[in-house]
Amino acid sequence: MRFLVAVLLSVSVLGCMTQNIQQFLMPNGVTMYFLQPTQWRGGGIYAEIDFNYKTKEETDVICNISIIDKKGIPKGISAMTFTGDNISFRLTELKVLFAESNNNKIRITSNFNRDEFIQFMRREEIYFEITMNDKTEKLLPSKEFIRLKTNFINDLEWSENGILNATHH
Predict the structure, then answer these.
(1) What does the DSSP assignment read for 44-103?
(2) What is the SS3 assignment for 40?
(3) How far apart, in whole angstroms, are the C-alpha atoms of residue 117 and residue 112?
(4) What is the pLDDT of residues 59-114, one digit of tens each?
């Protein structure tokens, strides 16, 4: 039995290193998943997006976004929406963390409804939209994000079914 647990733990640790997902065991049996930044591009805008998801808690997912606009520092951001298979999921509580005018970059944190986040991560045709100064830009995910979302859903389902709930990365 110990051998099986060691093999599962080793495979899980190696898998997390290649899929850019980190798991942290927290008090009360909660696991926090950190989905490291991945690239999204479109319309002259580049974004790096990461997520923090906690199991066994009814809290929103934290979504952090760095946006770089080659035309200048992003301003007038009024909405951010993830869309999957024609179903839109709007981010809430947008807050600017900092801006770097020399890099035309802004860093924003926001909330993503936890149930909607899981629904989005299970979708196939996905994109991210940013509305700035009444103009909406559509950004497409990198292949790295597509792999990451598949691995995240698989890890989450295994954890919820008790198969890998003892892992720590």
Answers:
(1) TEEEEEEEEEETT--PPEEEEEEEEETTSS---EEEEEEEETTEEEE-EEEEEEEEEGGG
(2) strand
(3) 6
(4) 999 999 999 998 899 999 999 999 999 999 999 999 999 999 999 999 999 999 99
Residues in CB range of 160: below 8 A, 6 or more apart: 55
d(CA 146, CA 126): 9
For every residue of 102-167, DSSP letters joined together read GGTEEEEEEEE-HHHHHHHHT-SSEEEEEEETTEEEEEEEPHHHHHHHHHHHHHHHHHHTTSSTT-
Q: Using one digit for the tens of pLDDT, what is the confidence trace for 7-51?
A: 344 444 444 444 589 999 999 889 899 999 999 999 899 999 999
- CA–centroid distance for 90 within its chain: 14
Cα–Cα distances in angstroms (integers) from residue 82 to residues 57, 120, 141, in the given order:
22, 7, 11
Q: Which domains does the chain have, with CATH numbers?
A: 20-160 (2.60.40)
Whole-angstrom distance, CA of residue 136 vs CA of residue 127: 12
Residues 103 and 46: their CA atoms lie apart, in Å, by: 12
Question: Quick one: 142 exposed, middle or buried, by C-beta within 10 A (0-12, 13-18, 19+)?
Answer: middle
pLDDT band at residue 163 under the 50/70/90 scheme: very low
